[in-house]
């Protein structure tokens, strides 16, 4: 089957063990999300063959890398690995680092062309420079290009942006977005940043204490109640859609999704582009009236799907609403929920400030 099977039962120490059973897509980005110590890197190292689980199975597209009586060594696994630090050879230029990967590549397997990698990562001006002459973001782009030129069947990325400051992260994320859209191999991406998950991940696995507590399509996992994310970061949902209009006078773009429209601050996108947006539950309010007398531009007709008390704050109610098939979460006071007499199946208006929508 064209999937990535990961079954691991590994005792890492007396205090920690990793026990997971995952069936992941064989294309797109699967994000491993969780706190430090949750088992993300151990899982990735087991897939790479850098660590061996006592009991487990790892299989990609029907090819076994580990089973009860079989073990494929790390150097024979067709992987590209990007670490937190770029780890380039300091005595080689950027091009020399890439040439090293080409020599190691399987000539029978063609994942991406050299010219495409250079264009995809925007590194043509950097090729004759040595690592010490590059910024952290530039070094990491070279490291990603090097991992791709091995022509891997899977790309493993262990928090590739964690060593960069916010400005460099902002600079490199567009390159990662292009990479994730263009490369037709599965990518396992470790992160503890919800922004990276929402911008990049198609599938999401949340790890806690060595176990997968949530997994599924990113939009579905983020839109669940109760949501595991309340224990990690501000609860957010993912909205995906297509830009259908742009208003340069007001600096706004119109996004179409599930028969709904939203106005968002204009970015670099063009009409027809697919866009992924993050909306925090604290930036969503609820109205019973359809009268258009509010400063909030985005007033979406939705249906209340579920309500629960926020486990972190008993005075707050989390409300899950559906805009078509897209879940939207709102965090409101319990008093507000009572005054509005909110209940499952109720038709209401979800209000989202254009300025509050995050990319």
TrEMBL record:
Gene3D superfamilies: 2.40.50.100, P-loop containing nucleotide triphosphate hydrolases. One of its GO terms (cellular component) is membrane. Residues 293-359 form the Mop domain. The keyword Ubl conjugation does not apply. Residues 1-234 form the ABC transporter domain. Keywords: ATP-binding, Cell inner membrane, Cell membrane, Membrane, Molybdenum, Nucleotide-binding, Translocase, Transport. InterPro entries: AAA+_ATPase, ABC_transporter-like_ATP-bd, ABC_transporter-like_CS, Mo/tungstate-bd_C_term_dom, ModC_ABC_ATP-bd, Molybdenum_import_ModC, Mop_domain, P-loop_NTPase. GO terms for molecular function: ABC-type transporter activity; ATP binding; ATP hydrolysis activity; molybdate ion transmembrane transporter activity. The keyword Transport applies. PANTHER family: ABC TRANSPORTER I FAMILY MEMBER 10, MOLYBDENUM IMPORT ATP-BINDING PROTEIN MODC 2. This is Molybdate transport system ATP-binding protein. It comes from Marinomonas pollencensis.
